[in-house]
Design a protein that fits this description.
The chain is built from six helices and 21 strands. It has helices at residues 5-9, 15-18, 48-59, 144-156, 165-168, 189-205; strands at residues 26-33, 38-44, 69-75, 80-86, 90-96, 100-107, 113-121, 136-138, 162-163, 177-178, 180-182, 215-223, 228-232, 243-251, 259-260, 263-271, 274-284, 290-295, 300-302, 305-306, 316-324. The strands form six sheets. The protein has a seven-stranded antiparallel beta sheet with strand order 8-18-14-21-12-11-9. The protein has a five-stranded antiparallel beta sheet with strand order 10-13-19-16-17, with no helix packed on it. A three-stranded antiparallel beta sheet has the order 2-1-5, with helices on one face. A hairpin with a 2-residue loop joins strand 16 and strand 17 (274-284). The longest helix has 17 residues, at 189-205. The chain is elongated. It starts with a helix and ends in a 5-residue tail after the last strand. The protein binds 2-oxoglutaric acid and fe (ii) ion. Fe (ii) ion is lined by residues 232, 234, 246, 300. 2-oxoglutaric acid binds next to strand 19 and strand 21. It comes from Romeriopsis navalis LEGE 11480. Its cofactor is L-ascorbate.
């Protein structure tokens, strides 16, 4: 039985299949490959191979996935063959009876939200409403050589940084921010290129409406001993209103010579065009070579950094900024 996209959108499935047996049962699996090739095999619904095929297919939607080799036995009464192909050639799987794959976001004890490998599930006709996640953190974001290049630049360009305080602190918000920044840093292209690649995944995870990316801003910051950024959001002024997403890429020298400097992201309520931070917040650790994304209207803060050496090279560095939608006329 071929499964059409219509059936996926509005399942028109016999009632006998709405609550299919959870016990393992045989599934006819048709593997669709690029170029129109197809192979059919029979697997148990709980077969690791079926799970692996769904995992490969879901990972295909992630731009930074590296293709791997897949080898699948195709035994039948008359032959004993195997097919080998690169995982990026897998374009679809047709299963009879239907098997749906679910992406399962998982929160780790650190509050880090990641995607777990999808589990093949037979009873996912009405998946539960997705939970809204405040942020997504992606680890190992840059290849080691680019991470190192950025670190070399950040640690050897002390003269190019300016104090953030004068631009941020006011009579009303005294001592609001204290750190160093380069407003127009070098080496941003390779980060921006990767931002574009992960955007679909970030938007899906944060359950945001698609938007056109009009502009990406980038700055480089250094937080050393005693530095912080009190609670604020990033799009509260007319000039910043088109910022949709905030991203923060963290990097520093190993072994890590500072503590603190966590990012706290608050429950945020929007009333009368203003954003208000609530009591509850999530803590994000600024893991080396990780990037965090969250909606720019969320209230957030950088908790004070403790860096006993006070050496500039030991700072908590970020390449961070904002993804903007087109300005409203
Ligand atoms: O460094 C961070 O973790 C966040 C920085 C931030 O909130 C900002 O620059 O607006
Ligand atoms: Fe911010």
């Amino acid at each position: 039985m071929a499964m059409t996209p219509k059936q996926l959108d509005t399942p028109d499935i016999p009632s006998s299949q709405l609550n299919p047996p959870t016990a393992p049962h045989p599934v006819r699996v048709q593997i669709l490959l690029a170029g129109g090739h197809q192979h059919t095999l029979s697997l148990s619904s709980d077969a690791p191979l079926l799970h692996q095929l769904f995992t490969v297919l879901v990972n295909q939607t992630q731009a930074d996935t590296v293709p791997s080799l897949l080898q699948i036995p195709l035994q039948s009464d008359t032959s004993n063959q195997a097919i080998a192909f690169s995982s990026d050639k897998l374009v679809g799987i047709v299963t009879d009876p239907p098997v749906f794959a679910q992406r399962q976001p998982v929160e780790t004890p650190t509050g880090l939200t990641q995607f777990a490998a999808p589990k093949a599930a037979t009873a996912a006709v009405s998946p539960p409403a997705p939970k809204a996640y405040r942020y997504i953190q992606i680890e190992d974001f840059l290849p080691p050589e680019l991470h190192q290049q950025l670190l070399n630049y950040a640690t050897t360009s002390r003269a190019d940084y300016v104090e953030t305080g004068p631009a941020t602190n006011t009579e009303f918000y005294k001592d609001h921010r204290n750190s160093l920044v380069i407003y127009y840093p070098r080496y941003t292209e390779m980060l921006i290129e990767r931002l574009h690649k992960v955007m679909p995944r970030v938007i899906q995870h944060l359950d945001l409406a698609e938007f056109e990316v009009a502009r990406i801003e980038t700055q480089l910051t250094a937080h050393n001993d005693g530095n912080y950024y009190k609670m604020h959001n990033d799009n509260g002024s007319e000039e910043t209103a088109s910022r949709q997403l905030t991203y923060v890429y963290y990097f520093y020298q190993e072994p890590q010579a500072f503590s603190g400097g966590n990012l706290a992201i608050y429950d945020t309520e929007r009333r009368d065009g203003r954003a208000y931070g609530g009591q509850n917040h999530q803590i994000v650790q600024p893991l080396n070579n990780s990037i965090v994304f969250f909606p720019s209207f969320y209230m957030h803060e950088v908790q004070p950094v403790i860096c006993p050496s006070q050496a500039f090279e030991d700072s908590r560095f970020t390449l961070n900024g904002w993804i903007r939608q087109p300005e409203k006329a």
